[in-house]
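User: Sequence recovery, please. Input:
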């Protein structure tokens, strides 16, 4: 317990120090971007410079902040004080019904509109998957997941999912989520964001910016409004994953938004989503089949008399992927 408290204190100290560095970096970005948007081809007025500075600087800092988490979610809570969460199986079933309806209805129109280009769209999606090094990131995430699972098995930590629920989760994540979520986040939300920033605010000039001190180029010569729409889309996509959100959700939102914008074909981001979720689901099913963890029902709404409430325990939990 004492070691966990010390570790938690060090983590919080690192977070505070990192926050101070980010604030300083944000101030520097503000002046640097302000100078950039005064020059040709932008020459934005004061209002647009303030707007673009806020959004672009915020987007860059969001990425840096999420990257600093190193795929981990750090928690320190008394389990008896946690909110009661809905039963995982019921949550997945609800998502399967709602998401399945969206996927079933929308897939008909998607197939009709892109029937002749499905093969080439699939190939292009795989090219993006490798060109954006998504396969390498996925390998790193699965390696972290494997290590965390082994540690959980040795220490005796529990999982909230029974194996049949994991199978249902894999089916939903692989075959329903890619269609339903791409329709909602890329076709609907991204297009609305694109209209807002490109058409309404007229942020249509190509944007490319080299991050100070990192020498990394962002913007990819896309219109400023498209860059903002992509980042906004990634941020929302990241947040809707609630307790499961990780850096790769944010980066995945960027990659799928870029794929949709450059092709105008929803099959491409759906394929990216399908490949990623499918590989992760297969890995998780194999992992839990080989090294099953005990199932804990504590903290969920559905609880039977045969599942007694355990004593409160304070733990530092590292969850990955």
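Assistant: Recovered sequence (321 residues):
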């Amino acid at each position: 317990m004492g070691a966990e408290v010390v570790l938690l204190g060090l983590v919080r100290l690192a977070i505070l120090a990192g926050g101070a560095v980010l604030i300083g970096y944000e101030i520097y970005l503000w002046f640097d971007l302000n100078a950039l948007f005064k020059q040709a081809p932008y020459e934005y007025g004061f209002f647009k410079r303030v707007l673009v500075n806020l959004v672009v600087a915020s987007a860059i800092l969001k990425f840096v902040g999420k990257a600093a988490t190193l795929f981990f979610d750090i928690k320190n809570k008394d389990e008896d004080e946690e909110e009661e969460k809905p039963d995982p199986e019921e949550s997945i079933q609800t998502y399967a019904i709602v998401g399945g309806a969206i996927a079933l209805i929308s897939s008909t129109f998607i197939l009709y509109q892109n029937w002749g280009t499905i093969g080439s769209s699939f190939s292009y999606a795989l090219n993006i998957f490798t060109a954006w090094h998504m396969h390498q990131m996925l390998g790193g995430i699965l390696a972290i997941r494997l290590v965390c699972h082994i540690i959980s098995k040795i220490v005796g930590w529990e999982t909230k999912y029974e194996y049949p629920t994991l199978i249902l989760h894999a089916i939903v994540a692989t075959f329903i989520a890619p269609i339903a979520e791409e329709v909602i986040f890329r076709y609907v939300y991204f297009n609305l964001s694109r209209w807002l920033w490109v058409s309404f605010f007229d942020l249509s000039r190509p944007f490319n910016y080299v991050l100070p001190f990192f020498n990394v180029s962002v913007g990819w010569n896309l219109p400023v409004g498209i860059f903002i729409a992509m980042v906004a889309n990634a941020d929302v996509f990241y947040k809707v994953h609630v307790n499961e959100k990780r850096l790769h959700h944010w980066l995945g939102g960027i990659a799928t938004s870029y794929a949709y914008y450059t092709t105008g074909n929803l099959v491409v981001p759906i394929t990216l989503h399908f490949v990623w979720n499918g590989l992760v689901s297969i890995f998780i099913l194999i992992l839990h089949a080989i090294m099953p963890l005990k199932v804990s029902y504590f903290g969920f709404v559905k609880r039977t008399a045969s599942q007694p409430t355990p004593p409160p325990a304070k733990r530092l939990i590292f969850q990955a992927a």
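The chain is about 65% helix and 10% strand.
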